[in-house]
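Hi both,

Apologies for the delay on this - the queue was longer than expected. I finally got the nicotinamide-adenine-dinucleotide-bound model through. Below you'll find the protein sequence and the ligand SMILES exactly as submitted, and right after that the structure tokens for the full complex including the ligand.
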Amino acid sequence: MQIGIVKEIKDHEYRVAATPAGVAALVAAGHRVRVESRAGAAIGYADAAYQAAGAELTDTEGVYRADLIFKVKEPQAAEVALLRPGQWLFCYLHLAAAPGLAAELMRGGVNAVAFETVLDAAGRTPLLAPMSEIAGRLAIQAGMQALEMKNGGRGVLLSGVPGVPPGKVCILGGGVVAANAARIAIGIGADVTLLDLDANRLRAFDVQYGGRLKTRYSNAANIGECVVDADLVVGAAYVLGRRAPRLLTRELIRSMPAGAALVDVAIDQGGISETSHATTHSAPFYIEENVVHYCVANMPGAVARTASLALAEATLPYLLKLAANADAALKADAGFAAGLNISAGRVVHPGLAVDLGF
Ligand SMILES: NC(=O)c1ccc[n+]([C@@H]2O[C@H](COP(=O)([O-])OP(=O)(O)OC[C@H]3O[C@@H](n4cnc5c(N)ncnc54)[C@H](O)[C@@H]3O)[C@@H](O)[C@H]2O)c1
């Protein structure tokens, strides 16, 4: 199969879907790989390294002529225009929050496999997890910046200092993003509370951190109590393939201390707050109801080298199967098939179909 590795064009997106080592593995498996010029240049992978691995260098039009387009982020408008019927697209898509893109992919007859809905044998999301690990860790860093006075924050140092108590962090969700945000927040000595619907997740956190982390069931009353005096709220709730649950009303946001921060990591699925809308690395913050919001939908792009290495390792085994025989690969593995969002003009992922009103 001909595989196209794209240079990302989303704002400040420097990740690349395949490393030269990944390209060498694809070539060794008998595939022809086209890499768009400068696809990995920003993170230290020169064109020459891809050529040495056996790739053919090409321009944007050339890369989109491949049978399978392998990239990181959902295609932007200029990229959608280059897709063609029957082509395979393997990348993050987050279509529940992007009905317009879903409609275009359906119209275009593309077979779109979304990293974020692929499942492993245990029902986990192996191609979302590496980026969630990064986004969770970055969430506390972003929140600390949001709390700085120059960004409109209330001037709280989350770690506190001797004689002054630490800041309060409220994490909504208890999955991969949440676990990594909790790890960093606890590490710097913040006062952390984590809420999830899943009692077993809460038990696991309790065992791991003992008294250094408070856990609570996620319901409207507990969320309200936790958010009202939080310095930083992290949005990390997600239901597979669905729009993010709306856990925070505008009124609740208004009840937070002036200058408090919301880092809504779940913004790629639409966000957990009524007040959330996607921002970019160029302009990551905005203030609404006196709360500093950070809603960057491609957070790992900020640490593109680490992110590319982690993502490429996780996706390569799936890419090799897809490229060898896409239909057989999806038929043989129900978890991989759960990644198929759109095929031959139809939405085929059940949760996505519900959210998009089909
Ligand atoms: N902005 C970014 O750059 C970026 C990067 C990576 C991941 N994400 C997003 O972050 C979100 C979380 O990802 P994840 O990998 O941690 O998912 P996950 O599946 O590991 O965890 C989600 C957790 O949310 C919990 N949950 C569901 N409904 C809830 C509710 N009403 N209240 C509290 N908890 C609830 C689930 O029980 C689960 O534990 C996803 O939307 C993902 O796409 C964003």
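Main takeaway for now: Residues 116, 125, 128, 131-132, 135, 172-178, 195-198, 201, 218, 236-239, 244-245, 247, 265-269, 296-300 surround nicotinamide-adenine-dinucleotide (CB under 6 Å).

I'll put the files on the shared drive as well.

H.
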